[in-house]
Amino acid sequence: MNTSRRQFAGNLIAGVLPLAAAVVKPRVEVEEPVYEFTPADNGAGPLWDYGAPGLVRQKGTVIAAGLDTLPNVKPLHNCRWALHRRGGSGWHRLLADEKDRQREPCPIALFEDGRLFLSTNPTLTPPNTYSGPADPQILAFSTKDFKTAPTVLRPTWSGKPRLSEHTYRGFAADARAGELLVLHNNGSGAPEAYWAFLDRSGAWRNQGIVRYPIRGCYPQVALRNGAAHILAVGDIMEPIPEWRKWKFEKSGGRQWDYVFRRLFYVSNTQVATEQFGDVLEVANVDETAGHITNLDLWLDREGAVHLLYLKRNIASAVMRDRFFPSIPLTSSLEHSIIRSNQVSGNQTLLAGSEGAGTVLPAYARFHATPKGRLFVFASSRIAAPASYENRLIEILPNLTHSEGTKVDLRYPFTNFITATERGGSRPSDLLDVLGLCSGAPGTTIRYARIRL
Q1: Angle 218-40-47 (CA atoms, 0-180°, nearest 5)?
Q2: What predicted TM-score, i.e. pTM, was given to this entire model?
Q3: Distance CA 313, CA 316 (A)
Q4: Would you say 37 and 67 are in contact if contact means Cβ atoms under 8 Å apart?
Q5: What's the structural domain count of the chain?
Q6: Bridge-partner residues for 140, per DSSP?
Q7: So what's the pLDDT on residue 236?
Q8: Is residue 140 part of a domain?
Q9: 2, exposed or middle or buried, with CB in 10 Å at 0-12, 13-18, 19+?
Q10: CATH number of the domain where residue 292 is located
Q11: pLDDT tens column, 327-384
Q12: CA–CA distance, 285 with 278 (Å, rounded to integer)
């Protein structure tokens, strides 16, 4: 890391930078569709594994993971992975799986030497079997020659986990070191995530189990300099008997209702030789039947871990009307910093509530530039008239932030992923965004390139 970047990162942590940084004026350079998809009706979709990387930038080329629905195949295993690439002539389809079936989208990660890794989870079941065991693999491609068949890597797991089509997968690369971390939940539903670490020699050097207080899902995973970090959200059937009974009656007899109310962070400082430590609970909205969405995890150069998440005090208006009639609904976009496995600070970046404004935060991701500036690209829902907007917010010292600048997109993103360092992309003055957009068909995955 050069001197100016090291100084900026240190000052960011110490809180000694000037509060008034130069205002960034984002410029939309490209805005276009990438591919169309057919809903698979299997509980997943192209952005289902939102915590894992699905978009990478390699200099002037961008590669996106896609998801195809197979015709005339019954759920759950009725999808296949695809790869799309954008160069100087726009997007084109690179490859698709020609032999295997699976349920979920497949994350991708990039090494600086040009290798692209795809985490795939082909089923071992006969066609049209509803559920069953899977065979997780990592496919290693060369970005210089996609015509050559990929090398198949099978993670070495701890013990004998039950691995199925429901992976709640985590995937991360240390692009410079040439190392990978893959994470799969136990298919039995137990609150366990099995992990395997691939070192720079290509060996599965270490493996183990992360044990959450309750099942942790949709993880963001980061890997750098031999240390690994995980952010996951609790995913559990409604635990309160009174609420569960009411939901059962309200839904007309649906037997399940999963809730997301607890946010977990866990780390391993020496992933090549050690196990993950104790799980830290970052946030909890159990008391008011709230909802949490884990959004992103970013590592600064001095060791602090930045977390991004959405928090609603009550999950829905109907739930509020029945059990909390005097409490207004609130929604906020939260930024927390972890040091020494403890929350050292928190700030609210965006917030809205009934009677206190018409703009509600909907989604967000971190983005860092080569000079060390940290931004949040956020989506907000505007109640009247119903619409969405995207804003770019800068994280400033002393747990402060800029007001944010609107990004003038023709089709604002509602739910999206970005080319992230967690997937091997470098910090960049280009923000690459892939996802679903307001005003566009709901079965179109779109892309934007935004210059900061």
Answers
A1: 30
A2: 0.94
A3: 9
A4: yes
A5: 1
A6: 117, 151
A7: 95
A8: yes
A9: exposed
A10: 2.130.10.120
A11: 999 999 999 999 999 999 999 999 998 765 578 999 999 999 999 999 999 999 988 7
A12: 21
